[in-house]
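Sample intake sheet
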Amino acid sequence: MKELTKAEEEVMQYLWQLDEAKVAEIIEQMPKPKPAYNTVSTIIRILEQKKFVDYKKQGRGHIYFPLVSKDEYSKASMNNLLNNYFDGNLKSMFSFFTKKNDINISDLEQILKELKKDQNE
């Protein structure tokens, strides 16, 4: 899966929230100062080329929708992070985040409890 730029990922975040939207509706959700219509429209076209977004015609305009789910992209991003920065070693990545975020034992226990719950579902 191709990686997204920060701007592309930001637009995708809004599109994932909305499920489908016109460019103007995406911009409406963005904080001020809002980007120019042409800027967001260009990003959407790039996302189309990268096969992250498609559209359906509505009148003279387009309604855009994601082709890649947020979960799919998150999983691919985490795998890239794991492989590119931690040589695919999950233990190294977890150790890094534990040290950098000053996680205590009760936090680790809570994380383990959540992981066990997820495995049982």
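Comment: The two ends are 27 Å apart (CA to CA). The chain has two domains: 6-66, 89-121.
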